[in-house]
Amino acid sequence: MLKKLSLRMRLTIYLIVISIILLGTVAVLENSKQSTVFSHLAEIRDTNKVLIEEFFTNQVEYITDFSTEDKVLGMMEVLTQLYQSNEITDSTKYTSQIRSFESTFKNYAGRRRLQSIILVHNDGTVLYSTRDEGIFGTNMLSGEYRNTGLGQVIEKAEIGEIALSDLAIFKPTDKLSMFLAKPLEQDGKTVGFLVFEWLDGNLSRTFTRPVKFGDSEDTYLIGSDMLMRTNSRLVKEDTVLVQTVDTQAAEQILAQKTGIVKQSSYQGTTTLTAYAPISFMGIEWGIITEVKAIDALNLTFQLKLLIYTLIAMTIMIIIFLPYIPAKYKVKQYWTETFWAYLYMLPVFAVLGLFVFYPVIKSFTMSFYDWDLIGARTYIGLDNFKELFGDRLFIKAIINTSYFVFVSVPITISLSLFIAILLNSNIKARSWYRMAFFIPWITSPVAATMVWKWIFNYNNYGLLNYFLLKLTHLVNWFAHIFTLGAVDQWLHFAPINWLNNPDLTIPNLILLSVWKMMGYNIVIFLAGLQNVPKELYEAAEVDGASKWQKFRHITLPLISPTTFFISIISIIGAFKIFTQVFVLYNGGTGLVNSGLTMVFYVYKKAFGDFRMGYASAGAYVLFFIIFAFTLVQMRLSKNRVHYS
Asked: Which helix (H) or strand (E) holds 124?
């Protein structure tokens, strides 16, 4: 029945059936993978919830045990006596009285990673703290700090129970702190309060666990006000009590529900999220563990993209089928094409893995903030905006442009001149060709090290040595022709080639011209030898001069070669890196006089570890090279003559 239908109709039916099958299969795979991820997130959520609950349970046990130690009660008794006798402000007596107790408090605080241990009188006055926080002698029940976390836990502990405060900014220190207070009792009476203080880092440290489904996997706590109680490791800035988590998971936590959900996170990205409420000593929090859907379901997303691409290509074929040449509709053509591409598959695999994939990956990376270790954060075009506001990047563009527009014309001109000489009938022509080509095949690092010695200043490098000999020669001639009347007519001082900002780019140009000429000479020679000799003979008969033959015969007929060399020379010059790195000891010369665009990208990627920013810089360089290539092709359109 299908055979009676037109080819377009059959292709359409095949497309619909295959699309349904493929998309249905991917949907099943996605649901299976999503269930696995949800199960993992729920496991991490429950584990971390237990860890948080254990953290607070342990702290209660620690403060309970510590409050019964003799030195704690002894310290409280001494401080109470000093306070009641109005001798608490006598620094000499105060220090001498607490000396035998203080080491116990400070050692204990260090072992338990406490910010401080505080002793408070039963009327609310602070009598001691292991850290100077500016609260000594301040009454936390009636003073200016009564509404702080410390004041609140002391007020709660007055009824004889252990009290916990929510995480908040403690005004005397401007730090995010939590406080745990326990009444100190002696002879059945409350004589004061023992207080533990932690910073917000104690909570964040609890979640230091390896991730499984990508760098975007994250766990954090939120309070009943929907503000974070621990920092997200995906955001470099502090998020505690700053970042609001107004999401579906947060709403469910406030309703005291536990579950999993696919939602839009506080960062605006689609995530798979597991959530649960946490309640401890009157503190109502929630724990959220999530991962970006694109990371957790990356394989199925890529499969979908591939299927959609194939569907789009098939639709285009169906639309333009009447306009496709007949040979493309023959089965033999597609059989031959299949085997041809099959043979080329290894090459495509290598290029795809080591060229195309890195290029595409770096482009996507340019829209992220990533330090190679932490999670990537999508920031859009911010990297590109920052680039063009960076004075060093602008300087790198200027330095690179200076190098390109001076070195390339000099290199091409000299290469063509030498190639014309070598193309003539001269002795030892093969030896000269080899001599000029050796610098090109020499390792760039080795060649640059040689030039570094040539430019040497301290021990008279080769260049300064020849300049010195030249000076002696000039002085000798001056002495001869003036019959000794002139002494030291010319005085030579060694030139510090590598430590003069004005000479940085000229040094690189000199090195580059020497290094690149050999390759260009060989290419020009190939082009010159393809020019028919009959044209020169005919021009000679017509009385043409050497310049006229060069201008009207040689230049037009080697224009494809010249065009090719100019393109690759400009691309190569824009990518200069090794010479700068080796010549200036891994630096960029004085005041960044040798800072080039590739070196700038290298420093940002592997010096500052800003991979997204460096990728943006690399793509700016790509677009600059691409623009120059288009301009060259446009300008050369009517000047390149192919036979």
From this structure: none
